[in-house]
Structure formats: structure tokens, C-alpha cells
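Hey, can you fold this one?
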Amino acid sequence: MSYELVAVDIGGTHARFAIATIAKDGTISLGEPETLHTADHASFQTAWEDFRERQGGTLPRSVAMAIAGPVGGDIIRFTNNPWIIRPALMKDKLDVDHFTIVNDFEAVAHAVARASEDQFIHLTGPDGALPATGRLTVIGPGTGLGVAHLYREPTGEYRVSATEGGHIDFAPLDSIEDAILARLRKRHNRVSVERVVAGPAILDIYQTLAAIEGKAVAEEDDIAIWTRGQDGSDSLAAAAVDRFCLSLGSVAGDMALAHGAKGVVIAGGLGYRIRKSLIASGFAERFRAKGRFETMMAGIPVKLIVHPQPGLFGAAAAFAAEHNGDLH
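Sure. Predicted structure:
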């Protein structure tokens, strides 16, 4: 027998829904995802009802939710989304028997734990499967910088811990990064790594490089710079993307050291979109450049997860881990 549930991945702009199936052997599969705009719905409940209608009027009586924000407490609020979720009312409001709520990056770490080997591509280090036991660091640049770690037991079980690793201090390693830090410090008393290796950071990196070149550049959104940096139409934007990759390599290596990781996984939509740049850049060299520990760092495999819906898949995996006794 298999077990069905609704998997949900909620961010500031989009809420993604899918029917997930957990097979008797624990294998998780997702139905076709539905993406709703949060701005089109007054609440999560009305979005849920919209999805239910799209599914013919009925849904499984369990739900797993990955939420972009803190999930503790009696009320869950979103940073860029007016919805409010009260876990105590979930069963009555949604007409479900079981539910799981996790932070969105905690869900990504669950996805890393459960994804098959063909869902990863190699970035640096030994080109083999991720270690079957021990600790892995999961780091994902997006609108912010998510960091988690998971520990795989010899029994096959695993544990996931979400962290606030994206908010550790940024440590520049050369004069260009000194200049990036100086620019950021004009606006922030304390500059965290998230200010340098999350998607919006490309603006400050680009503007810093332009200042070094003595060029005046117009203010624009980060998507335009990412696009030009990737398609080769703007050499300064390409240099900014390369600098971003260098800094991400440094931060990923620092996290691996701090966690005592045997492997590292880069996650998130941005990581996937810049995968070719990561491979071609100095990401790998910066990841290894840890002084006396360079040899040790060279022995750590670094992968990029390419699962198309890690938030939905990971939410279902988190549900399976929490409700294992209720599944069959």
C-alpha cells in the first residue's frame, strides 16, 4: 500500500502544491505541481481551497508544508507575504488528520537526504556518491542564504538540523572583497555572508567592480545583471558572477569546516541556474583554500542538487520522517 498527502512549498511570491505519494518501501514521488501566486489569495486556506478545486474537490487528509520563515510558535508569519498560519487550527481549517510544518531550507536538507544519486551533479572533490554516513552541509543561495546540516546514521536513518549559518560574519580574502565589504558597511553595521552570497548581492558586487574600473553604471535589478553575466553580453556582469562564485566557494568551505562535514551540497534555484559558472569559476579553489586544512578540504565531495522541486519533495520526506508509524 502507498500513502498520499499534499506537499506545499510556500514562499513570498509563490505557493507550490503537489500530491505526494510515499510507497511502502519509503520511496517518495510527486504528482504534477501547481504554482499559485500568493498575491492572488487572501489566505493560505483560500489557496488550499483553490488547489482542492483544481484536484476535483477532494484532497488527501495529510499535509506537509515547507515555509520560507521561522516555523516555531503559535502563529507563523511570512516576511514577504501577508498570510498567517496557526498550526493549532490546521486540522480543522484544512480538514486533515496529520500535518508537518518545517522551514523551507530544512525541507531542502530532507530532500538531499532522500534524493537518488542521479539528482546530483559533481562540482569539486572526489567524483563519487555522497558519503552514506556522517554529516553533510547543505547550503543554498537564493533571496537569502540557507544553511542546514544532516547526519546520516549507519542504520540508514538521518537527522536534519536547520541553522542560521547565513548570518555569520563575512570574511574578505582579497582587496576586491575588501571593497565589497566597505560598500556594504555603509548600509549595514554588521555584514553577514548572506549580504555577499545571496541572489540580491550581485548588485553590490557589480557596483563595486564598476567603481574599481571607474565606470558609471545605472541602477538596475539583480535579475538583469545575472542574465547578462550568464549570457556573456556584459564582461563586467560576468566578472561579478565569477566573484559571487568565488565567495560562495569560501563560505561553503567555512561551513564544511564548522560542521565537520564529509560532504557538501549546494541547493536552491540560483545554484542550479549558475551551475556552469560554478564549475568554470574559482569556486573549487576557494572551497579548498583553508590553509593547513587544504588537503582535507580537497577530499570532501561537493555536489549540486538538481531535483526540480526540492521544497515539495523535502516537505514530503519530512512528513515521512515525523509520521512513520502513521503511514500504512
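The first strand starts at residue 3 and ends at 10. Let me know if you want another pass with a different chain boundary.
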